[in-house]
Design brief:
The protein has 383 residues and is an alpha+beta fold. The protein has one domain. The protein is 14% helix and 21% strand. The chain contains six helices and 18 strands. A five-stranded mixed β-sheet has the order 4-3-13-15-14, with no helix packed on it. The chain has a four-stranded antiparallel β-sheet with strand order 9-8-7-10. The chain has a three-stranded mixed β-sheet with strand order 2-1-16, with no helix packed on it. The longest helix has 18 residues. The protein is globular and about 50 Å long. The N and C termini lie far apart (96 Å). The N terminus is likely disordered.
Length: 383
């Protein structure tokens, strides 16, 4: 770079200042973590995929528009080992928020609800393990970042240890029927990690998983992304993860609030057991879809039933807890019907011989025959 008409010393100074300016203007790793994000981003980004509810105890909570037997940290995603510990890689477009910030709870009236939080973690869950299984459950509403109230037994998912990172892990959980037994035989996994002043439970360590699976464990590097859709490529996981969520909008003088929100008809109870009936529809969702246009409901509210279009896929077994994570919906609970046997074709006549008259195999005649009529014999073709 040559600055014409300037003394040599001044030219060098300007050149050095320009280099410093370019370095400062270049986005550094972690810059996306420091960008400003508020609760208003939660409210606007998640609104198309569910319903915001104003609840007296927890403020604004969110009900996702999902199938009735949805489970957080089980449906439409998988576990991967990251540099921060076990990370839940979700396929939902709202997974960047609901599985990496805040808490979950289950209420028999509302179903699963997400309670927003302002601190990122690879997953807000607690873990248990013994010599044969790993288990995890979402953290419910608690008093600190890594302490949770006791959750019902059927919140837990227990898998054989060797399938913890399997792409089809969902085939190896047969439901919560054995959870009480596993809760007695397993021990808490209290491995922790401190990330930017926040301590959270990381779950089984790499050496423990390597011993259980009998093979190498890939450790993914977590990279910041502007996109809210998570991407996995080679040894990297790219996801949107602002470091801190601001509770208020600067200069607004008030807390942000969802544009479409309904007042909770009933206050939330303590975390309750899950209804795993695939045909069960929680009362809140059913009432919102029924009453969304009445004067008692704020216009424009209600869960969008088309947020996740249903797509069918053939099941591979009769496990009612098996999910097709690539399609983001639960598979058909009924096994596919067995195909009907194909009609047997009559054997071809040998060369030089006439075919026998009459119907051929199971084929129907071209037109219904009149009563008493006979089928004429085919003429012999002259050679």
């Amino acid at each position: 770079m040559i600055l014409l008409g300037l003394p040599g010393t001044l030219s060098k100074c300007i050149f050095r200042l320009s280099l410093i300016f370019l370095v400062m203007a270049t986005p550094a790793r972690g810059q996306y973590e420091d960008q400003y994000v508020s609760y208003a981003d939660f409210y606007s980004c998640l609104a198309p995929y569910g319903q915001w509810i104003q609840e007296p105890q927890y403020g604004y909570v969110w009900a996702p528009a999902v199938e009735g037997d949805f489970r957080p940290y089980y449906t439409n995603g998988k576990w991967v080992m990251s540099e921060y510990g076990n990370l839940w890689a979700s396929d939902y477009p709202w997974g960047w928020a609901a599985f990496h910030y805040g808490r979950w709870t289950y209420d028999t009236y509302y179903g699963w609800l997400w309670i927003p939080g302002d601190t990122w973690a690879p997953a807000w869950v607690k873990w248990r393990a013994d010599d044969g299984v790993f288990g995890w459950a979402p953290l419910g509403p608690g008093t600190s970042e890594n302490v949770s109230t006791k959750c019902p037994a059927d919140w837990w998912v227990f898998l054989p240890q060797r399938y913890i990172y399997h792409d089809q892990y969902y085939r190896y959980w047969n439901g919560p029927g054995n959870n009480s037994k596993y809760l007695k035989s397993t021990r808490p996994v209290n491995n922790t990690f401190d990330h930017r002043g926040t301590t959270y439970i990381t779950g089984p360590g790499m050496s423990q998983v390597k011993q259980a699976t009998g093979g190498p464990v890939q450790v993914y590097r977590v990279r910041d992304s502007k996109s809210r859709n998570m991407r996995m490529h080679n040894d990297e996981v790219k996801l949107f993860k602002p470091g801190k969520i601001a509770p208020t909008v600067p200069g607004s003088g008030e807390d942000p609030y969802p544009a479409d929100v309904v007042v909770a008809p009933y206050p939330l109870k303590e975390p309750q057991g899950v209804n795993d009936d695939p045909t069960h529809e929680v009362p809140f969702r059913q009432e919102m879809l029924t009453k969304r246009n009445t004067p008692h409901i704020v216009p424009g509210t209600g869960i969008n039933p088309t947020a996740e279009p249903e797509r069918r896929a053939n099941r591979t077994d009769n496990n009612p807890y098996e999910w097709d994570v690539s399609r983001q919906v639960k598979q058909d609970p009924k096994p596919p019907a067995e195909p009907k046997p194909a009609a047997k074709q009559p054997p071809k006549p040998a060369p030089g011989r006439k075919a026998k008259p009459g119907k051929q195999g199971n084929e129907k005649p071209a037109a219904p025959a009149r009563e008493g009529a006979t089928t004429p014999a085919p003429r012999e073709t002259k050679r």
